[in-house]
Amino acid sequence: MSKQIRLKELSELQQLLPESGRSKPAAPMKHNHDGKRKIVRVSRDTKDRKGKVVTIISGFQHNPDTMGEIARTLKQYCGAGGTVKGMTIEIQGDQRERVTEKLGEMNYVVK
């Protein structure tokens, strides 16, 4: 039979746990992207897409990694798929209002 121990404080439990059983601190949250008041353009397009609507965000001047982060943020916010093509981001569906709102929060000027 195992012996039961009554703990008075949480720190006593921490001393009983092996090193591998202790939880690790959560990874720090990534800093939101700062657009530095740069101008981007948001438009709606259906050309060469068999009638499907996409929202196109153009005017970015970032490296591909940063473009991917911005696209991921916008896709999650809109709840839609999308992709990065060159220096533009395409979000599926007519998401102009949501994209404009989120880009405003990210400190971009939307036209």
* Number of E strands: 5
* Helix content range: 25-40%
- Main beta sheet strand tally, sense and closure: 5 strands, mixed
User: Would you tell me the structural class of the helices and strands?
Assistant: alpha+beta
Estimate the global geometry from the Cα principal axes: elongated
State the end-to-end distance.
72 Å
How many helical elements?
A: 3
From the alpha-carbon coordinates, what is the Rg to the nearest angstrom?
23 Å
CATH class annotation? Alpha Beta
Uncertain runs with pLDDT below 50, 5 residues or more?
none
What can be said about this structure in brief?
29% of the residues lie in helices and 21% in strands. The chain contains three helices and five strands.
What labels describe this entry?
111 residues, alpha+beta, 5-stranded mixed beta sheet, 3 helices
Describe the 3D structure:
The structure is a single chain. The protein is α+β, with helices and mostly antiparallel strands and 111 residues long. It has one domain: 2-Layer Sandwich (Translation Initiation Factor Eif1), CATH 3.30.780. It has three helices and five strands; from the N terminus they run αββαββαβ. The chain has helices spanning 10-16, 64-78, 96-105; strands spanning 39-45, 54-58, 82-85, 88-92, 109-110. The chain has a five-stranded mixed beta sheet with strand order 3-4-2-1-5, with helices on one face. A hairpin with an 8-residue loop joins strand 1 (39-45) and strand 2.
